[in-house]
Design goal:
- The chain has one domain.
- The chain is built from three helices and six strands.
- The strands form two sheets. The protein has a four-stranded antiparallel sheet. A two-stranded antiparallel ribbon has the order 3-4.
- The longest helix is centred in the N-terminal third of the chain and has 11 residues.
């Protein structure tokens, strides 16, 4: 499931440089397609793969329930975070994670986050992709 999670995010934002702003706010959200629904999965030919959000998830003008925000339909409105997920947020000059639940915050704190895409945003230096 972890491999599909990273693959989804690499396909959507390979350079880790896409962001969006929710309406009438100064908060900037990282465009991470699997983080908001992390820990939610389904099977394809017996292989567990991650749920993922659709572009509508990052479009604040959608009303709750008006469109499908993620593949499995567990998200009901833009920028909602599933209890097992999180979202990268830039506010007050720094990147941080907001979690879908206290339990997720605790699990997240215990993870070895080295090499994760969300950690690259927080380093303030994004690595340029190469032709190779």
């Amino acid at each position: 499931m972890a491999a599909s999670h990273e693959l989804v995010e690499m396909l959507v934002d390979p350079a880790i440089n896409l962001m969006t702003i929710a309406s009438d706010t100064k908060k900037v959200y990282g465009y991470e397609a699997a983080d908001p629904v992390e820990e939610v999965s389904f099977r394809i030919d017996g292989i567990e793969v991650t749920d993922f959000v659709y572009p509508a998830y990052f479009e604040a003008f959608h009303r709750p329930g008006s469109v499908r925000f993620d593949h499995l339909g567990v998200i009901r409105k833009p920028f909602e975070i599933h209890g097992g997920g999180y979202l990268s947020l830039f506010e007050d000059g720094k990147w941080m994670q907001i979690h879908g639940s206290k339990a997720k915050r605790r699990r997240f704190a215990r993870e070895d986050r080295r090499g994760h895409r969300s950690e690259q945003r927080g380093q303030h230096v994004l690595k340029r992709s190469t032709a190779r």
